[in-house]
Specification:
Radius of gyration: 42 Å
Structural class: mainly alpha
Shape: rod-shaped
Distance between the termini: 131 Å
Helix content: over 70%
Largest sheet: none
Number of helices: 1
Order of helices and strands: H
Number of strands: 0
Length: 101
């Protein structure tokens, strides 16, 4: 079996390898930072859009609530008008029949 030996030398190949690895690490880190900044900008835009959408939704909900209240009011008024028309029709019918109450 061959014994493993370690030579205590630094060669040009070792230096080039270390420099290349450091350059790759620095390049990767800088690309990561750029992408992180881009993602932060995109997130800020999305948050602003969501905030605007929430405001619009609130406005629509308020308009819907107002419309619902108006509808209920109109429905009640129509019901009252129907009751009055029935009473008027009953009175007219009695008058036509000769009932003079």
């Amino acid at each position: 079996m061959v014994a493993t030996s370690f030579e205590n030398k630094v060669t040009m190949g070792n230096l080039l390898t270390v420099v290349a690895m450091l350059a790759a690490i620095i390049a990767g880190y800088s690309r990561l930072q750029v992408r992180q900044d881009q993602q932060a900008d995109i997130i800020a835009t999305i948050v602003a859009d969501v905030t605007q959408a929430e405001g619009r939704i609130r406005a629509v909900e308020q308009a819907n609530a107002t419309s619902g209240a108006r509808y209920e009011s109109l429905s009640q008024a129509v019901g009252e008008m129907k009751a009055e028309i029935r009473q008027t029709n009953d009175l007219l019918r009695r008058l036509l029949e000769g009932d003079s109450r």
